Amino acid sequence: MALTKNQIEEYLKSTKKILLSTVTEENKPDLRILGAIATDGANTYFSTLSNARKVTQIELNPNVAVYFEAPDQKFPNYINATVYGKARKVVCEKELEKAVALIKDNLPHFEWSDDKSIYVVEPDQIKFFNSSAELAQDKVQIVEYNNKES
């Protein structure tokens, strides 16, 4: 049986680290693990140093993929999710305060400072893999998102 958007979003929330994929200036994929993260529904927030290479990459091409994998999983009950969307820098003070609080909830020792930026990835699509789904057609589920509703 297919999972609901709420079930998928709860899974995203349970994940403590993500892999963020961007594209370099040379149009090559670039991947890194991030721990200063949080989700709000299907939106993913992450903190980074403002002068990090990923910032320049996102400015040039905001299309990103974010891979979620909850810890300590074992086959046959293995689940992961990939969020495809656009990343944007959080500049609104109210959203920034919310993002910092969400990240601190997920990573209590997180400290906000002026040399950091927070980005949000707003999903266009989420691909969800559930190895324990009974039917083969239910193992991979694609969920489309309208950014105005997320």
TrEMBL record:
Residues 6-128 form the Pyridoxamine 5'-phosphate oxidase N-terminal domain. This is Pyridoxamine 5'-phosphate oxidase family protein. It comes from Variimorphobacter saccharofermentans. The lineage of its organism: Bacteria, Bacillati, Bacillota, Clostridia, Lachnospirales.
